[in-house]
Design a protein that fits this description.
179 residues; alpha/beta; Glutaredoxin; two-stranded antiparallel sheet; 5 helices; 9 strands; 20% strand; oxidoreductase
Length: 179
Amino acid sequence: MTSIKLHPGNAFPVIKVADETGTYRDLSRPAQGLDWIMVVVYRGQHCPLCTRYLNALASHRAELAEIGVDLVAVSGDSADQLARHREQLDVGFPLYHSLQPAQMQQLGVYISEPRSKQETDHPFSEPALFVVNESGQLHVADVSNNPFVRPDIPTLVRGLRWIRNPENNYPIRGARRYA
């Protein structure tokens, strides 16, 4: 099976997903008056590491907003699974559900099948994190094939603060392709 890889500097794909109220949002566009967006793709309610990571991200939401970065998270869980997961989460940022395998493929994430019905009842994305700039271009990407490899949040936030500082004139890295 071949998979796509999102290239830094290219347009982030239009991915529309629903929140708990059934309202749809395009994950390629920031909201709340911010001009960048961080999209965190997580495995789902069955993953305790995802729960910890999302809760840890929540403590950095204000700092991300301070530098103009909107924070959202999405999984392939159903609306009911997200509602049950909310009981374990203490986050103030939007969570979205029902990311479909075709959308996962658009994002170039690794997709896993559940090991059993007790784990979950649908294919799910392994962790990924995308930061999209004010031009709709992919600026930062991290894609993993398992829940044990994720960006260190304080380092990530410091790095985004540095990138966003106009004095640093820091370009999108990894955008060059070789034939």
